[in-house]
Amino acid sequence: MSQVNTQQMGRMVAAGNKEKLGKAVEILARLEAMHIIDYDGSEDGFSLGSPEKGSEEVGRGLVKARAAASVVETSGPASPVPEGPVRDSLGSDLPAKIEEVLSDSSRIDDLDNEISSLLEEETGLSQIAPLGIDLELLGGYESITSFVGTVENVHEAREAVGSGLIIEGKAGKSGLVAVFVRNEDSGQASMKLEQAGFESIQIPEGEGSAAARLSEVRKAKGTLEGEKYDLEKRIDQWSKSNGEMLLCGLEVLERDHDVLTTPVRIAVSEHAFVIDGWVAMGRSEEVQSSLKEVCLFTEITPFEMEAGGGGHGHSDHHHSQKMPPIAFQERSSSRPMELLTDAVGRPAYGRIDPTIFMFITYPIFFGIMLGDMAYGLVTMGLGALLIRRSGTNEMLKLGGKFLIYIGFGSVVFGYLYAEFAGWEIFPHHGSNPAAGVLQILYPSIPEGMYHAWDASLPLGIELAFPFHRVVMVDDHGNLEHLILLTIYLGVIHVFLGLVIGFRDIMLFGNGHGGFGLVCAFFEKGAWMILLVGGFMFSYGFIGPSEWMMQPGAAIAILATIMLMWTLYKYHGVPFPINIGLAPIEAVGMVPTVISYVRLFAVGVVGVKIAETGNNMLFDKVSFDEPLMAIGLLIGWLAVQFFAWGLGVFSPNIHAARLHFVEWMKQYYDSSGEAFNPFGLRTQYVEVD
């Protein structure tokens, strides 16, 4: 199948003798080709299988390895390592080393609890030590009530004592007091102390001098903190020596555990097993051939869509089929764009996969907005850095390639715009001499001219090279032309989405039971007609071709009437409501198309930020005042990095919105379940 479709799937059923189930699972694990459907226990005579022998031991090792991995800070090897040495380590010294680091970690947890307890005691002792009273004398009397704490007004505290005893100390800016009164006077004393701003202090347990006990606590806390520091250093050293092997061993244990416990997902009887799942048809022969020795029966049936059954994959419609999982086509260059598709959700089975389209349009949209050679090169450099640092992290590698793609789009449009770090390259546009050096990349422009090439095309389209999107000199500039081009680009992009939707509904249905050419014509063809009619009316209204207004209006009205019928026939909306609803939905096409003007607006804002920094900082640099020049250059670099960061962040948001919202809503059904083949996935350790 082509790159615009996902892979064709087939339902596989494999059966064999129960004693060979483990071998069959091992083969499937190595193939990484089957999306297993968990047995639901609905068939008589079958039950769920049992884990293979050794799964409990592997499970215990896996739990310990995961616990150790949560303790240490480490990263895996830069490239996959052979499996043999990892298994040798798991069978010899690695388990003991894991026990060692877990023991140290457990001891650190105990030390944290002890230190926390001592810290709490230290806080209490340090508060009452200035009183100079032994701990056992601060409370515990039968006929005397004691109050120990801080007060805001010591004078009022003295008055609260009456015939009692007060001992004073100092606690920071507040007064520290210990008040002792007869039990019968405690109520009045408490009230007066409260008026003096009294706050009680928790009296630590113990006997003897508070100062002496405080010294002991601090010494004990210091000893424990020293022990904790030594253990943390030992764990750090352990991570450096054994961290990579730990992650490799963890991966091997996870593989083994998956293989050994997979039988609990499979139907077994007293003597047989049955494995049910999905495979990509491109690998069907390979899977059947590999299972031939351990299975008595294998069958792979290509999935066929029922007419009108290509709904949303839900069970609430009688016409919906149970859809297979969605597997992307094998890709190389365009694979990073699968990140965008997965962000929305995989397409329903049989529907168009937008990945290959976004491989083309997303960098174009991003480039139109950022459109600066300097920022594009920096973005590509960041992408290359991520790829170089990615090691075995596939997601990081794809992210780096994605940055290279959008950065390249910015370089291309930066060249077309003749912009570098916010400067116009050509001198007659006020270029900085440093950027003016880049004129060697362009054809010569005759004196008094502003473009090396320009052309006027139908529908008011003006193209030029270089395309000056911002700066206006002597009324020469292409700003208005860019606005018009973004609107036209919106019309084309939305129309493409409607064409894709037309195809999907014609073949697979609209999710409400309708399918076929007539259904597609009313569901998507009406919108295409509306888009054409609306474009003709708008161009006739604001452009030179006034004759297009009346035909365009007539076509738009006809399309609106078709929408009324569509809502009634295919969506079950009562016809009287459609009379008001269809025109409202039709008008909604206007903001959809106008939304593409952001391709112009976002880029202009970014250019103006960089241009402001150039004019206010860089152009004022004079090395006659070195310190001022250095300050201005640092400020200019800060503005440039801000403009670049904003230029990467904001255009990505808007490019994503134009694809995910304005374009995909014309056709996309994101109900697909991701194809998740069972297997021995490799990140750090090769599969032997």
Largest sheet: 6 strands, antiparallel
Query: Please, what is the average pLDDT?
Result: 88
Number of strands: 14
Could you say which structural class the secondary elements and strand pairing correspond to? alpha+beta
Could you name the ranges where pLDDT drops below 50 across 5 or more consecutive residues?
312-319
> Beta-strand level of the residues, as a percent range?
5-15%
What proportion of the residues is helical, as a percent range?
40-55%
Tell the overall outline. Answer: extended
SS element count, helices: 20
CA-CA gap between termini: 32 Å
Roughly how many Å is the radius of gyration? 37 Å
Provide keyphrases for this structure:
14 strands; alpha+beta; 688 residues; 4-stranded antiparallel β-sheet; extended; Alpha-Beta Plaits
How would you describe what is shown here?
The two termini are 32 Å apart. β11 and β12 form a beta hairpin. The strands form four sheets. Strands 1, 2, 3, 8, 9 and 10 form a six-stranded antiparallel sheet that branches. A four-stranded antiparallel sheet has the order 5-6-4-7, covered by helices on one side. The chain is of the alpha+beta class and 688 residues long. About 1% of the residues have low confidence. It is extended and about 110 Å long. α4 runs antiparallel to α7 and α10 packs antiparallel against α20. It contains 20 helices and 14 strands. Among the domains are: 147 residues, no CATH class; 95 residues, Alpha-Beta Plaits, CATH 3.30.70.2750; 221 residues, no CATH class.
